[in-house]
Design a protein that fits this description.
- The protein is mostly beta strands and about 375 residues long.
- The chain has a single domain, classed as Neuraminidase, CATH 2.120.10.30.
- Helices cover about 5% and strands about 45% of the residues.
- It is built from 3 helices and 28 strands.
- The radius of gyration is 20 Å and the shape is globular.
Length: about 375
């Protein structure tokens, strides 16, 4: 998994060369009501992939710059943490992300390495909102992943194909069948009085850190999403005829975790694989019980579900980074509708009946384009 590609797609198991895929969502799927009123609070941000909003302020991470900002009332971002930047063109700084607030303490992740061959460290840290003290280390999630590897016994790829001669015909670069790998990338946190819940996009798991003991444990491993290989898909990818009709299981990649009621956590999942729509919109929203680890699917059909926010009445808002929209799943329903079209939305938070969202969160790696990330404030009805 490449550190500079958000860790959003694990090994590109089904390639990006597919041209024959599902059609994009039609306008009939769009939310029929008038788009909500929005205001831009800040702009010029580089990869704003995480937000936290509360009575102690609004925080945003610029992940690839290794920066945590507090957004002032005039919209100016104030740096409250920098992981140690480097000169342009040299080794990038450790990524800063996964920001959360609990009372007057800011929690975030800081880390680097992993599938890029570098040593993997993924620290959960805290910072007092009122003091200029240094961040406090809480737990190294990557160390837990290296020791436990929660999805290590789960088979991905062509799980049910047992003919090795068939697997040997699969093109290089597409893993035919493999177990969950040792890799950690903390992508989101949710914090309460006793615990820090972690969406680890590398481990494919929801984890829990006990604040007092610093002990890390596994809450749940998300279920793999599968794609059935048709003759058209097989021809486009150069796959052998022996896998036509078989299921290819994708890594689930959790990208956010938020609190619900009665011990439930709400989680977005962006399955590892191409995000060009060639395999359809495979993103999911689950609820995971923080005590039992039970996983229940709530909604599907998202294109790049990178974040969510849950309103007080139970509506679920989802950032679809590769669908270029923010969707809503109304309480009691399972089908998402478009709330607002937005370019590459990355993170969502709700505070005081306002939905805060980052857009243009995916940087343009093709040229020297200046950072274009924004924070929007959206009035909810």
């Amino acid at each position: 998994m490449n550190n500079r590609r958000l860790y959003l797609a694990l090994p590109l198991v089904l390639g990006l060369s597919l041209s024959a895929g599902l059609a994009p969502a039609s306008s009939a799927d769009r939310y029929s009501a008038k788009p909500p009123a929005t205001a831009t609070l800040a702009d010029g941000l580089l990869s704003p992939l995480s937000l936290a909003a509360g009575r102690h302020g609004l925080y945003v991470t610029q992940n690839f710059a290794g920066i945590l900002n507090k957004v002032k009332s005039n919209g100016a971002p104030k740096v409250v943490r920098s992981s140690g930047g480097s000169e342009v063109g040299s080794v990038p700084p450790p990524e800063v992300g996964s920001v959360s607030l609990y009372k007057d303490t800011v929690y975030f992740s800081e880390g680097a390495g992993g599938m890029d061959g570098q040593p993997n460290e993924q620290w959960i840290k805290s910072l007092d909102n009122h003091r200029k003290a240094s961040p406090q280390k809480i737990a190294d999630i990557a160390a837990y992943e290296a020791k436990r590897n929660p999805d290590g016994r789960i088979t991905y790829g062509f799980r049910n194909v047992r003919d090795q001669r068939c697997l040997d015909q699969i093109p290089e670069g597409i893993p035919g069948k493999y177990q969950g790998q040792v890799d950690s990338h903390v992508y989101a946190t949710a914090v309460d009085k006793r615990s820090i819940y972690v969406a680890d996009a590398g481990a494919n798991a929801i984890l829990k850190v006990d604040k007092r003991s610093k002990r890390v444990s596994t809450v749940a491993v998300l279920p793999a999403t599968y794609v059935r290989i048709t003759a058209v898909l097989a021809a486009g990818m150069g796959l052998p005829d022996c896998v036509v009709g078989e299921k290819y299981y994708l890594e689930p990649v959790p990208t956010d975790v938020e609190f619900g009621k009665h011990g439930w956590l709400y989680v977005t999942s962006l399955p590892g694989g191409p995000e060009d729509g060639s395999l359809g919109a495979l993103g999911r929203v689950y609820k995971v019980h923080s005590g039992s680890g039970k996983v229940v699917q709530l909604a599907s059909g998202f294109s790049g579900a990178t974040n969510l926010a849950v309103s007080s009445r139970g509506d679920i808002y989802v950032a679809e980074m590769f669908g270029n929209k923010i969707s809503v799943v109304k309480k009691g329903y399972h089908k998402p509708r478009t709330l607002l079209e937005a370019t590459a939305p990355g993170a969502l938070e709700i505070h005081d009946n306002r939905l805060y969202a980052t857009t243009h969160a995916l940087p343009d790696f093709t040229g020297p384009t200046p950072p274009a990330g924004k924070i929007l404030k959206i009035k909810l009805r």
